[in-house]
Structure formats: C-alpha cells, structure tokens
Write a structure and sequence with these properties.
The protein is α/β, with parallel strands linked by helices. It has eleven helices and 24 strands. One of its GO terms (cellular component) is membrane.
C-alpha cells in the first residue's frame, strides 16, 4: 500500500473512531436514566456539598419537573402517584447514593429505589401516603437527609434518614414534600430557615392576592409582608417570569404562594381546551425554571371560566381561585381608594384581589399590610386559608373566600 493510500485509510479510521465515540457517549447518556434534561444543567455547588433534586408525578398533571434541594414541592386539588430523587453533585471520592421508598395506598411500602428510578406507579391512580429518603455509603456518615411531608394542606415536622414522612395507614395521602441534605451536626432549625409557619385556625385571617405580575413593584409588597410576618399569593403571567426571575425567586424564598395566571393573560373561556392547557403548562414551566417549584393554584384572567376553561382546568387537577373583595385597583389607580375598599370591607376568611403591576397598588399594599396586622389578622396564602378552614380545594370548583361556617 502506498503512502497516500495509508493516509486515506488512517483518516477513515479516525473518522469512524470519532463517530463511534459520539455514539457511545450518546448511548451512555440515554441509558443512564430516564431523568429530565433539567438535571443536566450545570451545578455550581459549594465544595464538599451534596446537591439533591427530586420530583413527583401528580394524577392528571404528570411530572412536576425537578425541584432543588429544600424546595417545597406541592399541589392542590390532586395527589402524587410516583416519586423520584437524584444527586446532582456530591463530594469527590465519597461513595454513596440517594435511596428512597414510597408508601402506595392499598399496596404499602415499595422496594428501595435510587438515583432517579421511579418509586410508585408512573401513570397510576393510587395516591402516595408517605415517603422515606436516606443516603448510603460514605455520604451517610457525613450528611443527614431531612424530609417533611404536607398532609391536608399542613406541613408536618421534619424527619430524618429514612424515617416515615407522612401519615401512613390512616386514609390520607401526602400533598407534597420538602427534602434537604445537610452536613452532620446541622439542626432542623437551620434547615427550615424558610419553612412554612403554622397558622392559628382560631385567629382571624385574610388572604391577600396579587395578579398580573411579576413586576418591578413586587419588591415593595414583599418587603411590607416580610416586615409584618405576612404571606400572600402571587398569580403570575408566565411570559413575565423570566424578565423578573430574581423577584420570583424572592417570592419562593419568602414562603409566598406562587399562582398561575395564564401565559399571556388570555381569556381562557375563548380558547380551545388544548390552548388552555398549553397556557397553564407554559406558565408552570416558567415558574419552575425560576424557582424549582410550580404554581400551586390557578386564577383565570378576568375570573372567566366559560367555554373549555373550567373542564380543562378540572382535567388538569386544578380548581379556580377567585376573590371576595375586588379593589378595582386596576381601574382607579388610586392608592387611597384601594386602602379604603379593603379596610372598610375586610372580614375573616376573605380573599382580596389586587394587582402588583401598578405603583399605586404597591403603595396601597404598604399601608394595608401593617394595618391588617395591627387589627389582629393573620396574613396568609390562599392555600393556608383553605387548610385552616378545613376545605380541600376540589378540581373544577371555584373558591372566592373561606369564611367560618356559622
């Protein structure tokens, strides 16, 4: 074989080797697991830390997408049927994996799963009553896993290292979970720095809600809520979320409830069923990409539930959150009027409608929030209010207030 022929042969071999290497890499990537692409995003972890992600499948809604370590993962109007978790980062040289089990109603505890394998029944109908999560290998000697479950709208206490999270065998299911990996010696208080506080059902409460954001005015509202120990629900327009990502992340970190207000403030009653579903799902994705958690509630723009809106939301597992006090702040754009409407009409169990895209509304909120607190009202999220009143928000129903039954 002459020199030129040898060069051609070597060149072909090099090309084939490159193709084979790419194919092998692709095969390994596809074969490693059935995890979503979110887990492939780069992780900038502090050296020596474990980075955990987890997600659940909810009946009628599918998989939530991966939530980051110590994020609340919860839904209303439906229930989880499957769970999985994975480590995105762990200290170099340390052996170990994340392992977990779920308790499936009617079937009991599953076998042990790990590193992204599905626990429960994907696409199933039986709800999950509890979850156990722990580490093994070297990781178990240096880190603890804290898990808490939400049941009937209330977050239970933290449990650790494979203990049962949830109320198993009593006819209830979990609504959500929150999981954190911490170094040995850290306390639950440190883990739960941003945890959901307890609401006193015997004290009066009001759910302030803000539509049409996020916007540059949300920061004022959040600061007023923080200063007075209050929470609120923010119903966001999906196509604005990326533009105000840090604000939305602050909402989540402060324990505010993240609500879905459609992708582009469409009148859902005028859309087809698939279009309604796409609008809600796109907004959920935007919120999830910003915070690691999806919206828990939906408020249809204009409160419009005609056409395919209500049945589509119901099929997705959502109720519709409306209101009891409409401030009409979008129309008046007058802070004094908004303050007067709320303070002259407010009563225990109200849901108040405001909008966070107007400077006047933010200014009004800065006055309303401390005054309601001074009057003895707990400022709560819509879901906290519903849970305190013992109401399970059912798909296909709409809720405008949660007054005490006489």
């Amino acid at each position: 074989m002459n020199e030129e022929a040898v060069k051609k042969t070597m060149k072909k071999q090099t090309i084939f080797q490159r193709i084979a290497a790419v194919a092998l890499s692709l095969a390994m990537t596809l074969g490693m697991s059935n995890l979503s692409g979110d887990l492939s995003a780069p992780v900038h972890a502090e050296e020596g830390k474990v980075v955990l992600s987890y997600e659940m499948e909810y009946k009628g809604q599918g998989w939530t997408g991966w939530a980051g370590d110590n994020h609340m993962l919860t839904r209303t109007g439906t229930y989880p049927t499957a769970f999985r978790a994975a480590l995105r980062e762990q200290p170099a040289g340390m052996t170990g994996t994340i392992q977990y089990q779920v308790n499936v109603s009617g079937s009991g505890w599953t076998g042990t799963k790990e590193n992204g394998a599905v626990a429960g029944v994907e696409g199933g109908t039986a709800p999950l009553e509890g979850v156990r999560v722990w580490l093994n290998g070297d990781l178990a000697s240096s880190f603890d896993v804290y898990t808490k479950a939400q049941v009937n709208g209330q977050w239970l206490d933290w449990v650790t290292n494979g203990q049962d999270a949830g109320k198993v065998g009593v006819g209830t299911h979990i609504d959500g979970v929150r999981i954190a990996v911490v170094k040995k010696g850290e306390t639950p208080a440190e883990v739960a720095a941003a945890s959901v506080r307890k609401v006193d059902p015997n004290r009066p409460m009001v759910a302030l809600s803000f539509d049409d954001g996020p916007s540059k005015y949300d920061a004022q509202i959040l600061s007023a809520l923080e200063a007075n120990g209050g929470r609120a629900t923010f119903f966001m327009v999906g196509n604005l979320v990326a533009r105000h990502q840090k604000t939305v992340q602050r909402m989540a970190a402060d324990g505010m409830e993240l609500g879905n207000h459609s992708w582009a403030h469409e009148n859902l009653a005028k859309l087809s069923g698939p279009a309604v579903q796409e609008s809600i799902q796109k907004t959920n994705r935007a919120i999830r990409e910003a915070t690691g958690q999806s919206a828990t509630l939906v408020r249809p723009p204009y409160g419009s539930l005609g056409g395919k809106a209500r049945p589509t939301l119901a099929a997705m597992g959502y109720s519709a959150t409306l209101w009891d006090i409409d401030t009409l702040d979008w129309k008046t754009k007058n802070a004094d009027n908004t303050v007067n409407v709320v303070l002259s009409q407010v009563k225990d169990g109200d849901i108040v409608l405001m909008h966070s895209i107007y400077a006047q509304s933010a200014a009004a909120a800065e006055r309303i929030i401390p005054e309601l607190t001074r009057r003895g009202y707990q400022l709560v999220t819509v879901s906290e209010l519903a849970a305190a009143r013992g109401v399970k928000m059912e798909p296909g129903h709409n809720y405008g207030s949660f007054h005490k039954k006489k």
